Amino acid sequence: MTEESVVIYLRVSTARQGIAGNGIAAQRQACIDHLNGGDWHIIEEFVEQESGAKNARPELEKALALCAKKNATLLVAKLDRLSRNVAFVSRLMESGVQFTAADQPHANKLTIHILVAMAEHERTINSQRTKAALAVVKARGKKLGSKDIVKVGVIGRAKRTAKAKIHADNVYPVIERIRSFGVTSLRGIAKELSDRKIETPARQATVDAGRVVFGDPCWHHQQVAEIISRAAA
Length: 233
Hints:
Elements: E1 4-12, H1 22-35, E2 40-49, H2 58-70, E3 73-76, H3 79-82, H4 86-95, E4 99-101, H5 109-139, H6 146-180, H7 186-195, E5 205-208, E6 211-214, H8 221-232
């Protein structure tokens, strides 16, 4: 079997997450788990601290150039680490550079377009909510500063974290039940959760006759690991 070449791209959005933080380490491990010791040769790894809303990302440009030169596949842990911009992903597809995301290994071009469009929409909605919240603060006669912006962002993240924690607490007993039957690997548990149609942390979209629909849940081993980690926190 011919060994395939891979270039890994890892990204965090903020200085708080940091290049040396857990976010990068988790992304790197997700990529390694995806390769799963197969016939892959990792040429190089590129790490960047930049917003996914920005298309001008030097490290990503280097990674793509190397992929084109070496006929390699660009690998990211999650699709949103690549971009949340539909136009950017469309141009990337047209460039001919092959890429894959560990959290969506079987996604085709149409599915990728839809998932990125949904991520772009979510980013827009979050931005609108932040602006609305800051407008309320300003309307109360308070002068806005960087601390206010950070506070609004922290509240939004706290709500999402709380929602994820509730979901994890609901799913974890099912995982424990599956383990009691002798299924202990993350991939095995993911298959069982999918077979039982247990809702994933994020609903997964597909396309049917041109319509966006949400089909049966499809778990990945990274999601199982995150549920176990959140439930234990």
